[in-house]
Amino acid sequence: MINNWLPNIQDWLLPRLCPGCGMWTGPGKTLCSGCESTLPRLLHACPRCAIAYDHPDVTGTCGECQRRPPAQERTLALYRYAPPVDHFIRALKFHRELGLAPLLGERLALRLAESPTRPELILPVPLHTARLRSRGYNQSLEIARVVARRLAIPLDAHLLTRTRATAPQSDLPLTERRKNVKGAFAVREQKRLTGKSVALLDDVMTSGNTIHAAAQALIKAGAREVEAWVVARA
């Protein structure tokens, strides 16, 4: 009885405000009903790169993945990179709103729990040490902690490293993004990776080149299979 009353008391003393619009969410909710209804769920997409399909009848691998297959076997994206999810990701990434990591991680974990297969290891896409020092945290790692705990899959935040500082992908034209991250990742201890299926986790996937480069490094180091998990796909 006490455990049932505690959340109600907390909601009364400290009402939860929706991170999307600032309105009261209601007891036990993380988003208000309005923002909840506008979440841009990605329902129809290429299974290899998660690029959105405009029509629900379109299935299978997209033409680009058939021409130039990415290193990851499949990609699961929960949302399109559109309001209000894009606001959540930018606030987490650039404005230190770390309370959004559990919101995004919990929802991603719920979607992943539906998958019939599970990787043996979760690896967040790493930041270069210079950017990590500047920002103070890796937003992908904060989301990955929640997902790993919910799915009971081991998380390793140190196995995959970024070997050089690269220009932010968002600042570059699409034609230069693959070259920008080529060879930018390495694996510290290959024996811990050999023969394992791995999930790469990132907050947002735009061109897909960062995930591709990281997956290439993992496969070269001995990973049996790599899949990508992202909160949002642009």
Set down the secondary structure blueprint:
Elements lengths: L1 H12 L19 H5 L25 H5 L6 E7 L4 H10 L5 H13 L8 E4 L4 H7 L3 H13 L8 E3 L11 H8 L3 E3 L9 E9 L3 H12 L4 E9 L1
Parallel strand pairs: 1-6, 2-5, 5-6
Antiparallel strand pairs: 3-4
Helix pairs in contact: 5-7
At a glance:
It contains nine helices and six strands. The protein is an alpha/beta fold and 234 residues long.
Detailed description of the structure:
With 234 residues, the protein is an alpha/beta fold. The protein folds into two domains: 1-38, no CATH class; 48-233, Rossmann fold (3-Layer(aba) Sandwich), CATH 3.40.50. 36% of the residues lie in helices and 15% in strands. The protein contains nine helices and six strands; from the N terminus they run H-H-H-E-H-H-E-H-H-E-H-E-E-H-E. It has helices at 2-13, 33-37, 63-67, 85-94, 100-112, 129-135, 139-151, 174-181, 209-220, and strands at 74-80, 121-124, 160-162, 185-187, 197-205, 225-233. Strands 1-6-5-2 form a four-stranded parallel β-sheet, sandwiched between helices. A two-stranded antiparallel ribbon has the order 3-4. Helix 5 (100-112) crosses helix 7. It is globular, with a radius of gyration of 18 Å. It starts with a helix and ends with a strand. The model has no long low-confidence stretch (mean pLDDT 91).
